[in-house]
Design a protein that fits this description.
mainly beta; 13 strands; 7% helix; elongated
Length: 155
């Protein structure tokens, strides 16, 4: 165990416990621009959490043995939330850009919904691969706005 309690700019605590396979915790408490915490726990397959507390680009990445993945990234023109569960192949992706907003969702039955809003390219697409059905509804902005407000009434 190495512990530093001095009042320096970047106090750091490194802890290792040999009872587990390779557990490691690295913590930085400095008040710098990008404080980071990295934690690894080898009792599970390879779970890892990386957290950045930067106010510019907060990011959390979590990896678990059951392949659940959550990614949240905040950038000026590239905000998105991605949630994937590989065992059931469920995927939801939400991306916000000035001219490229969309939601994708598909599951093990290959159902997919894609909603895209662009100034001159507004459409709603939904298809089911197992039944080979495809619907493409392209409307004017005012009608699309009504569909958007109705479709996201509970969100």
């Amino acid at each position: 165990m190495i512990t530093s309690n001095s009042q320096q700019q970047n106090p750091t605590i490194n802890t290792s416990n040999s009872r587990q396979q390779n557990p490691t915790m690295i913590t930085s408490n400095s008040q710098q621009q990008n404080p980071t915490m990295i934690t690894s726990n080898s009792q599970q397959q390879n779970p890892t959490m990386i957290t950045s507390n930067s106010q510019q680009n907060p990011t959390m990445i979590t990896t678990k043995p059951n392949h659940d993945h959550i990614k949240f990234t905040t950038k000026p023109n590239h905000d998105h939330i991605k949630f994937t569960t590989k065992p059931n192949h469920d995927h939801i992706k939400f991306t916000t850009k000035p001219n490229h907003d969309h939601i994708k969702c598909y599951n093990n039955n290959h159902d997919q919904i894609k909603f895209t809003t662009k100034p001159n390219h507004d459409d709603i697409k939904c298809y089911n691969k197992s039944n080979h059905d495809y619907v493409n509804d392209r409307t004017a902005k005012k009608k699309r706005r009504a569909i958007l407000l109705t479709g996201f009434n509970n969100h």
